[in-house]
# Entry
Amino acid sequence: TTAGILFIVSAGLMVILGVMKLINFAHGAFLTAGGYVAYVAGKAGLDPWLAIPIAGVVGIMVGLVIERLVIRRLYHRPLDAILATWGLGVVISQLFSLTFGRGVQFAPSPLKGTTSLIGIDYSAYRLALTVIAVLLALSLSALLRYTRFGLNARAVIANEGLARGLGIDSGKVRSITFGLGAGLACAAGALITPLLSVDPNMGLPWLVNSFMLVMISGVSFPSLLFASLILGGAQVLVSTYVSPVIGGMIIVILAALILRFRPRGLSRA
# Structure
């Protein structure tokens, strides 16, 4: 279940990095935005499941606006793009602090209680997130492999200059990609908030782990799911049997070791 959560949280970052070659350090802020959408939806009495698509739509709309006003001018200035997304994340976090305060807020869970699996009781909602993670991996892989957008995106990933020469609007592909990545991040924030809580800096710890998982996965959703399973499992084992503090760092440590011996990640030779 931890692996499923890690995959859900990392998928949006993978989409943007894979197609746009852009490290989106505002990813944590988008996760936080999704968390606050779930909180507001809960306060309004809406079905907790409904908060997830609402967060996704909000993320897509905000992502499209940000791409057009900020990111589009920085495609050929990667360092400036990194600084811009980091600054954007800080600004968004401060806006949440001004709006909701710095305190911790809670969102209702769509599923309550436990489910027995092989004689062991698990959180029903965590099991549901695991199923969602697998379906999300299959859906995103199918999107890139079997749709016109996926074909255009893979062409841009392989050789943007050649793709533009073949008539593919790489600017449109980038815009849709950033919107999709932001939408996935916001939806992920809404999904994980019922398990935890939301505050203006909720997304920052998830940003670090997401970044490390994406770096070792290459542009491959099956590889990201595999990395989430291995490193997430290691995190749980170390946290349970060694130390929660070391467990919190184990993803970063293992990712650094993997990149030391396989600089191009798990999905490539």
DSSP finds eleven helices and two strands in the chain. The beta strands are 114-117, 120-123. The radius of gyration is 18 Å.
